[in-house]
Design a protein that fits this description.
Layout (H helix, E strand, L loop, with lengths): L1 H10 L10 E4 L13 E4 L3 H9 L4 E2 L8 E5 L4 H15 L4 E7 L4 H11 L1 E8 L2 E7 L34 H7 L8 E6 L5 H6 L5 E8 L2 H10 L5 E5 L11 E6 L11 H14 E12 L5 H7 E10 L2 E9 L1 H7 L1
Helix pairs in contact: 8-10
Protein name: Ribosomal RNA small subunit methyltransferase C
Enzyme class: transferase
Keywords: Cytoplasm, Methyltransferase, rRNA processing, S-adenosyl-L-methionine, Transferase
């Protein structure tokens, strides 16, 4: 794990933090070894941001200013990892120190190879199924443009590296957009809105009076702001597990995530379903899309009085669910 590798390298004297401010890009909650009082955490994933804030850390969703050192904690998405490395290099400038850490299962090896081509004096420390790398930014700066190509879908959607379906419309979302609940109206929630594809489809109905887009990834939500230009839309950077808007919705749309690592975790999607039941009006309807293999039927039956299969195609299944059971939702929340 990152915390173990970083601490071991510091304790062994293999790595030392230089003087000056340190930028930490997407560090896992509880990471130890960052220099006291001179590090800035930048993280866009709301649950991790909350975890850091509970420890008293100041967290920003976007970096500002220059730094002497930057730590990049490698995310799972390759394009996102490359973009973070580019940002780190740009923020510290020539002579600055770059520290990169990640798990092999998250693709750290390819990023280590890339970093070796961009930095000087590179050292690599392999431990705990991952690698820690550090090196200096050369002068002049390397060309960073290839690391951050525009992420626009062929249809013109602005997408985000930090989030779901970067660079293309997700087939599951497209299927749900083609099978939205009939007579969609009133106050609607897109739970796990990503960069706004489903929300925009729902807003085509003139009967929708309000649309809340709830998304945990800051960059995805910023992309949604560009895609969904509608006065009925509100953009909320929130964790679906604890989202509490103080109201209930006439309809909820959901294409829930089902992994935070390489391994599928249906419990994440099940949590989204329980949140939907908690936030839906008694007369409301849930429109859900899920991968065909995911076992959501039991949770739907637990949380809703009616759960109707609508269609299956391209490896996805669509459900419309009604009559939310608040007891089932509350028990699992």
């Amino acid at each position: 794990m990152t915390a173990q590798r970083l601490r071991l390298a510091l304790d062994a004297g293999l790595l030392e933090w230089p003087d000056g401010p340190v930028l930490a890009l997407r560090p896992p909650p509880g990471l130890e070894g960052l220099p006291e009082d001179r590090f800035q955490i930048v993280h866009g994933f709301r649950p991790d941001v909350t975890a850091w804030e509970r420890r008293g850390a100041l967290v920003q969703p976007q970096a500002e200013g220059a730094f002497a050192t930057a730590l990049v904690c490698v995310p799972r998405a390759k394009d996102h990892a490359r973009a973070l490395l580019a940002e780190a290099i740009g923020r510290v400038g020539p002579g600055g120190l770059i520290v990169l850490d990640g798990q092999k299962t998250d693709g750290v090896d390819s990023l280590v190879k890339l970093a070796k081509s961009l930095l000087t004096g590179v050292e690599v420390y392999a431990k705990a199924h991952g690698k820690l790398l550090w090196g200096r930014v050369p002068d002049p700066l390397p060309d960073l443009a290839p690391l951050t190509p525009p992420l626009t879908s062929p249809e013109g959607w602005v997408t985000a590296r930090a989030g779901f379906s970067a660079g293309a419309v997700d087939a599951g979302s497209a299927l749900l957009a083609a099978h939205l609940p009939a007579r969609l109206q009133g106050d609607v929630l897109d739970l796990g809105a990503g960069w706004g594809y489903l929300a925009k489809a729902a807003l085509a109905s003139g009967q929708v009076t309000g649309m809340d887009l709830v998304e945990a990834e800051f960059d995805a939500l910023e992309a949604a702001r560009r895609n969904v230009d509608d006065p009925r839309a509100r953009f909320l950077w929130e964790d679906a597990a604890v989202f509490a808007p103080g109201k209930r919705y006439d309809a909820i749309l959901c294409n829930p995530p089902f992994h935070t690592s390489r391994k599928a975790d249906p419990a994440i999607g099940q949590m989204f379903l329980r949140t939907a039941a908690r936030l839906l009006k008694p007369s409301g309807v849930l429109g859900l899309v899920a991968n065909r293999h995911l076992p959501y039927e039991h949770t739907l039956a637990e949380c809703f009085g009616e759960a109707q299969p609508v269609t299956e195609a391209q490896g996805y299944k669509i459900f419309h669910a009604r009559k939310p059971r608040q007891t089932g939702a509350a028990r699992a929340s």
